[in-house]
């Protein structure tokens, strides 16, 4: 019968799809990881991975083992926390995946307050404009703009947030008049690269009839910096505006969007106290920070 150490190696290889990546996570050399995988396959009498020059891919038998192995992983985490006894704060490591708008303009200050109150806590923020895989454990929790429609996950709505058209004072001072949406075709519009929009909720310019913005980036942070440099007009998170002096909202009576952030976690983490406590304080902190920054962006 397989032991937990071998199952831990199995999960690392399944998530990293290579012996070397799994080894870096486990702090083992690739040869040792390979031997452990072979031992596990022998114990189960089944081939768990297909080997190729591109890496290790789960076989049907291996895919069926993932859920039971993750259930054991969650049980081991709960056992470790139980043995550690009650703690004053949150400790251990938590990795958050987030779109770069939330990662740049919300998470730094929220996480700074959380870690200041919990010295034993280590937080990793993975800021990438894409969808994260909880199944592959790319993160312990993910901030997303769309609720997942399937999968064994826990989805908690964090808060609504607002987006507005915005431009720099320098741009507006030299550009044609912008008094209504009818004036927009005379202006350069900044937005997402259309074929790199990873979530339909991010297709902000569809409501404006703009299919191909002349200046574009897959990053909202880059878009905001382009707006700051006077490259044109774009859709901006209201909560990001306090970080962009010289940029202001325009056409506020004609255009505005509301979206929502959701915190997504693996269902097996529901009973992991460390993850539960961190999720609670993170959601509360993000709600308060979005409200504070939106008030500030509106001059309140």
Automatic annotation (TrEMBL):
List the keywords (alphabetical): DNA-binding, Transcription, Transcription regulation
Please state every residue range assigned to the domain named HTH lysR-type. Answer: 1-59
Q: Which residues form the signal peptide?
A: none
| Organism name | Pararhodobacter aggregans
Report the protein name in the record.
LysR family transcriptional regulator
Q: Does the keyword Glycoprotein apply?
A: no
Can you tell which superkingdom this protein's organism belongs to? Bacteria
Q: Which GO terms describe its molecular function?
A: DNA-binding transcription factor activity; sequence-specific DNA binding
